[in-house]
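Hi U.,

Before I forget, here's the chain from the pilot set. I'm dumping it here mostly so it's searchable later in email.
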Amino acid sequence: MMVAEFLLGKLFPRWRRMRALRSAQVLDDVVNSQVASLPLLPADLRRRHADHLAELVLLAQVYRCYAKGWISRRELERRGRAALLRLEEPGGLGVGATHRR
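Structure:
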């Protein structure tokens, strides 16, 4: 829509939209590169790895919502912090996680 695009451009610089879309694409690329490895993992790791990838997909969607002007930068940051906290939960695949048998 021309009107929506014009208004969005006034409120939201184009470079921010483009950067948000690039960030979403990077997250999509990470997920796409890792999905093929899911069947190769043991069942207990497969579930956690799939949850981790799903969280990245949701975060990419948040970046797209920001790029469209549907959410504010503050909301993007809030949702990003929440996603990082979920990724770092004990037993997850975050940095420093150990494999338990």
